[in-house]
Amino acid sequence: MSKIKLDDTDHDILEMLIENTRTPFTDIAKKLNISAGTVHVRVKKMEDSNIIQGSSLVVDYKKLGYSFIAYIGIYLNKTSQTQFVLERLREIPFVTVAHVTTGKFNIFCKIRARKTSHAKEIIFRIDDIEGVTRTETMISLEESINDKKRLMHAIFNEI
Question: Which of 33, 39, 50, 105 fits a 20 to 30 Å CA distance from 84?
Fold first, then answer.
């Protein structure tokens, strides 16, 4: 797969959409001194090349009562059970992210829970999945960095 070439205008459009995915194309066009049609064409190009894949919504989980975050390293009996365990993890809605990893854990995942007792229930559900030999849990005290813009700037500077 060849690398898609993006220019400064594409970078500026991406930066604004990363800041707020709901920014109207007309607002982006005004800020960049280009037409809304140009913004539309460039976003469509980035969607067609899968640089942009949908958009996301930022939710304040604390306001919904889900302020507890933990990361769980999962050890498997056999690596051949990875897909089976991932399918079971998908059935637990409180598992929000899962990575197949090398090193200490076979799978590393993130959970969101209401409180400690709820997290314990989720962890016990994960422990009960066939093929899981044990888990190791790390509680997040706070999310200190979650900044996609810095990464995008670093990528743009490399291009």
Answer: 50
Find residue 72's DSSP bridge partners: 109, 137
User: For the chain, where do the domains classified as CATH 1.10.10.10 start and end?
Assistant: 8-57
Q: Is 16 exposed, middle or buried (0-12, 13-18, 19+ CB in 10 A)?
A: middle
* DSSP per residue, 87-114: HHHHT-TTEEEEEE-SSS-SEEEEEEES
Residue 156 has pLDDT above 90, yes or no: no
Which tokens in the block code for residue 11?
């970078």
The CATH architecture to which 8-57 belongs is Orthogonal Bundle (1.10)
- How much is the pLDDT for 18? 87
- DSSP 3-state assignment of 133? strand
Q: pTM of whole model > 0.85?
A: no
List pLDDT tens digits, range 65-108: 999 999 999 999 999 999 999 999 999 999 999 999 999 999 99
Cβ–Cβ < 8 Å for 105, 73: yes
Give the CATH fold of the 61-139 domain: Alpha-Beta Plaits (3.30.70)
